[in-house]
Write a structure and sequence with these properties.
By secondary structure, the chain is α+β, with helices and mostly antiparallel strands. Helix content is about 30%, strand content about 35%. The chain has 2 domains: about 30 residues; about 160 residues, OB fold (Dihydrolipoamide Acetyltransferase, E2P). Strands 1, 2, 3, 6, 7, 8, 9 and 10 form an 8-stranded antiparallel sheet that branches. β1 and β2 form a beta hairpin. The longest helix is centred in the N-terminal third of the chain and has 24 residues. The radius of gyration is 20 Å and the shape is globular. The protein starts with a helix and ends with a helix. The N terminus is likely disordered.
């Protein structure tokens, strides 16, 4: 009887440690907003015009690709009216859905501000840089100035990711000014 309790205790402790290890492994490493902006190639304001999800070639993951029409560039070389593709893991194909926690999702018609970096595969397709920290949804209610909410606030109703300069919810003009200022500091540091 005592041996059985000891075995249960060891299994329970091992299981809890394993759970704790898995939980810790899913936490995103804290990165300052300045570093996040400096690592982007482009920061844009745009409109999602199409959203398509599909299995990868191995049928091991679903990826969603959003077509985004650039309305304005805050950083980088993308010009207004350019159409770009932004691809992230997760999505729905037929009746099967994969949701990747912390990764942004897209909705057709949504106006967004995005921090972008091209995928390393040479396809010219972008990804949102900084996971959900790099995507802001724009809200243009008629009775007030346009506001933005970071992806995690839109999805859960509360900020879940760290921030140091870029507030999870702000006026659109304030966010674009802050992003512009951070981008200028990055560029000044890179080209003294």
């Amino acid at each position: 009887m005592r041996r059985r309790q000891l075995v249960r205790g060891v299994l329970l402790t091992g299981g809890l440690l394993g759970f704790a290890t898995c939980t810790v492994a899913s936490v995103f490493e804290p990165v300052s907003d300045f570093q996040l902006v400096c690592e982007t190639t482009d920061i844009i304001q745009g409109q999602v015009t199409d959203v398509q999800s599909a299995w990868d070639n191995d049928r091991t993951a679903i990826w969603t690709t959003a077509t985004v029409q650039v309305r304005g560039a805050i950083r980088g070389s993308l010009r207004p009216d350019t159409l770009i593709h932004v691809k992230e893991v997760g999505g729905t194909v037929d009746d099967y859905t994969i949701k990747a926690d912390g990764f942004p999702t897209f909705q057709k018609g949504q106006e967004v501000v995005m921090l972008l970096q091209p995928w390393d595969d040479g396809s010219g397709t972008y990804r949102v840089w900084g996971y959900g920290r790099g995507l802001f949804a724009v809200d243009r209610r008629e009775s007030r100035a346009p506001t933005v909410s970071r992806y995690d606030v839109v999805e859960s109703g509360r900020p879940t990711m760290p921030t140091d300069r870029l507030p999870p919810t702000a006026l659109l003009d304030g966010l674009t000014r802050e992003l512009s200022g951070l981008a200028r500091r990055c560029d000044a540091r890179a080209h003294p």
